[in-house]
Amino acid sequence: MSASFSYTVEGRPTTWKRPMQQRGKRRFTEAGQRKAQHEHRLLALASRPRGWRRDGRFLVRVWLDMPDARRSDVDNATKLILDALNGVAWEDDSQIDALEVDRAMCGDAGPRTVVEVVRTGERMRRRAARAISTEEMVEALEREAREHKPESRRWRELMAASRKLEEAS
Predict the structure, then answer these.
(1) Spatial contact of 156 and 162, defined as CB atoms under 8 Å apart
(2) Average model confidence (pLDDT) for the chain?
(3) What is the distance of C-alpha 7 from the center of its chain?
(4) Are the C-beta atoms of residues 168 and 134 closer than 8 Å to each other?
(5) Pick from 5, 121, 17, 122: which is nearest to 60 by CA?
């Protein structure tokens, strides 16, 4: 059984920005970014279950409800969150095995960020797939190829993969 927690940050999702340099060699992080990271830390601390363990492996889901279509990178928004939760939800964000991010235009709820952290325990194992025969794989490739226009680039790629599998067996 896995433990989990989630929290919501109201307002436009904040993205991570590279620290700026101010005359000389001193670098600083923007105040808005520091404030957003602090808010994520506080909400995660308040939301996580008592006795939360920061060791092990994690799955993180992030929903970004954006107020408008302005350009914003989901990877930078996610990086801010993952960095903010270092030492709170996990020791280091290298413990995250899976990350799911969904960005959408917000509805009536307004702009917000929803974060869910799931402690999976040990390293996640790849989903166990049943062993399939070469013939089944070739059939699947050819079935997908039929969905594309004959002689299109994707059709040629699928047919080439199918022929390679047949030759290898």
Answers:
(1) no
(2) 78
(3) 16
(4) yes
(5) 5
